[in-house]
Structure formats: C-alpha cells, structure tokens
Amino acid sequence: MKKKKREHLPIYGVGPIYGVSIILITVLGIVLSLNGMLNLGKVSFLKIPFVILGIVIALFGFWVWYSAAFRIDKYITRNKLCTDGIYAWVRNPCYSGIMLLCTGTLFMTNNLILLILPLIYWIFMTILMKNTEEKWLYELYGEEYKEYCRRVNRCIPFPRRRNK
C-alpha cells in the first residue's frame, strides 16, 4: 500500500503531549516541595534572587509562547515554513515558551532539586522533536528546512545565526 504524503503538518503537532506532560511534572514537583518532601533542596539565601529570576524566565517564556501561538496556524494551513518573527529565534517557540514558563515557576519555588527538571524537559523536547515534527518538516520542505535548522536553535530562543 502506498504511503499517503502529508499535505501539511497537524495544527497542534505533538504540542499537547509535551505541554501537558511537563506542566504536570512541574505541578507535581511544586506540590512535593510545598509539602516539605524536598526540603533538602531549599536554600534560604537564594529565595529572593530565585523568585526574581523565576519571574523573568516565566515572563520571557510567556512572550515566546504568545509570539508564536496565534500565528503558526496560518502558515501550517497554507503549507508554508514559518521562519520569521519568533521563529527566527527558535524552531519550536510554543514548546520552548511552555518549557520556559515551567522553568521560571520552578525557580520561584527556591528548590535546587527541582532545577533538574528543566534539563529533563529539554531532553524530552529534543527527543520528541527529532522523532516527530522534524521528520515531518524535512519530508515537506527538504533543503529549505535543513538550512533553517542550521541557522535556528531547536529549543532555546536565541537571535539568528548569521550565514557563513
């Protein structure tokens, strides 16, 4: 049987799987921390700096997510690769924004043990993207997508690299 070629990506991709998973893990970590189960990781002199840093990271995460969430649908339905705006900074801004929001929230708990979770979120996102959406995008856009990947980070928002 011949494999049917996609006309365009699914609107939500694997986002709900990723987003719901890391939000639930974040909430579980916070609940455990607030209930005193992870007191070993609390460092009192870091409380204020961690809360401030957490707020900054969470606000940046919201901005990254918001900058992408309401514009990608039109690119997907028109079957165009989005490489401008926040997509010039990060290839997966909706997922990255959620990851940053969760990371900022974790910083606000002032618990060093919970700061292993953003590394897990990054690994999970990398594996998930490599095995799903990146394959789909390469199938749809070929060299155009490959070149985009060379210029733009997968997970961490960063200004576009210059072409050499």
CA radius of gyration is 18 Å
**Low-confidence region ranges:** none
Distance between the termini: 43 Å
Average per-residue pLDDT, rounded, comes to 87
Sum up the overall morphology in one term: elongated
Residue share in helix: 55-70%
The largest sheet is: none
Approximately how much beta-strand content do the residues carry? under 5%
Count of individual helical segments: 7
DSSP strand count: 0
Structural class: mainly alpha
Element-level helix/strand string: HHHHHHH
Structural write-up:
Helices cover 60% and strands 0% of the residues. By secondary structure, it is an all-alpha fold. It has 7 helices and no strands. α1 runs parallel beside α4 (93-108), α1 (15-34) runs antiparallel to α5 and α6 (133-141) packs across α7.
Summarize the structure.
The chain has 164 residues and is mostly helical.
Which descriptors apply to this entry?
7 helices, 164 residues, 60% helix
Would you spell out the secondary-structure blueprint of this structure?
Elements: H1 15-34, H2 47-69, H3 72-77, H4 93-108, H5 117-131, H6 133-141, H7 143-151
Helix pairs in contact: 1-4, 1-5, 2-4, 4-5, 6-7
